Amino acid sequence: MLDQLETLPQDPRLVAIRFQPEQLTRARELRGLTKAALAALVDKTPGAISQFESGLTKPDSHTVARLGLALAIPVSFFARRVVGPSILSDACHFRSLRSVSQSLRRQAIRIGEIGHEVLALVQSDGVELPKDEISPLKCLPRSPEQIEQLAYDVRRRWGLGAGPIHEVLPLLESKGLRVLPLTAACAEVDAFSTWAEGEPIALLSFAKPSSRVHFDAAHELGHLLMHDDVSPGNPVLEGDADGFASAFLVPRESFLPECPSRWNLRDFQSLKARWRVSIQALVVRAHRLGKLSVASYRNAFIDLNRWGYRQAEPGEWDLMQPVVLRQALELVSDDLPLSRIAKLLCLHEVQLRQVLGPLTPGEAA
């Protein structure tokens, strides 16, 4: 595979001959551009871009060169094939379909594909990644009680007990989840997950508060376990994933004896420090378990709104970043330095570093 990638042409005339239509779509969506926007940059019509992407026609060498400049990508990108499994948009669970544009969702998917390609390359160089321990636990709960039971079963199977999970990301990586970063350009996407030819993948934004990242990771685990064969986009599925995340991070049997029956900020701050879950999520959990009354629940959110804690809570901690991708890249750094990986994927190195973000070797975690 590496030899095939390294023989890709750099000359626009040769790229025009070996042009892969889907690669133009990937490059365009990676930049977050519509067909009309790209057409304007290369002095073509949107219809011409559609024909290039569908394979009805091929761009000439001059157009190939202009496309590379407009998309800030080496022209060789248009001649290569996808490394590893593609990520299908209709199989991705996004946190909010209504508030995020389709172009941003597609951009996030393309970023995820590149991250997954990097993982495929390091595996082809002999690196063994953690085996999948998530798929054997998949099921389709049909009630909140069954979701609670699934969270309990996952904890039991993984030997987690009923106490707090202080570092969720390394735990999920050790169980085979491929955790990849969402770049700043896709911050509005929030998070998403999918199965890519049998591999569980989750893309998360690490720029958020630590408690939010923990909950997002558990939420995506819920999707992967419960919604593999269910079409994304249903708000009920999001509620189910939230319910799983709450039950997984804050088990009922151990949380209820600790939880106060009345709203008090100091008490819930202490619970946050222990359980590594946001105050807001703890309030919701306490209410749904019947520990907080409707009045206490309402007062909690009135106070949190008044203090500005709905946007930024106190008591966050230093998040432990994912380690699998970073360590894999360090292991292959002699044979596959980042500069060579970028060349194999027909990207500029700076682009690859932007995609990998804090997981880039040598970058501050």
List the main descriptive attributes of the protein structure presented here:
mainly alpha, four-stranded mixed beta sheet, 4 strands
* Sequence of secondary-structure elements: HHHHHHEHHHEEEHHHHHHHHH
Measured by DSSP, the beta-strand proportion falls in: under 5%
Number of helices: 18
Order of strands, widest sheet: 1-3-4-2
Total beta-strand segments: 4
Outline the fold blueprint.
Layout: H1 2-6, H2 12-17, H3 21-30, H4 35-42, H5 46-54, H6 61-70, E1 93-94, H7 102-124, H8 144-157, H9 168-174, E2 178-181, E3 191-196, E4 199-204, H10 210-226, H11 235-249, H12 252-255, H13 265-275, H14 279-288, H15 294-306, H16 324-331, H17 338-344, H18 349-356
Parallel strand pairs: 2-4
Antiparallel strand pairs: 1-3, 3-4
What does this structure look like?
With 365 residues, this protein is mainly α. The chain is 51% helix and 5% strand. It contains 18 helices and 4 strands. The protein has helices spanning 2-6, 12-17, 21-30, 35-42, 46-54, 61-70, 102-124, 144-157, 168-174, 210-226, 235-249, 252-255, 265-275, 279-288, 294-306, 324-331, 338-344, 349-356; strands at residues 93-94, 178-181, 191-196, 199-204. A 4-stranded mixed beta sheet has the order 1-3-4-2, sandwiched between helices. β3 and β4 form a beta hairpin. α3 (21-30) crosses α7 and α14 packs antiparallel against α15 (294-306). The mean pLDDT is 91.
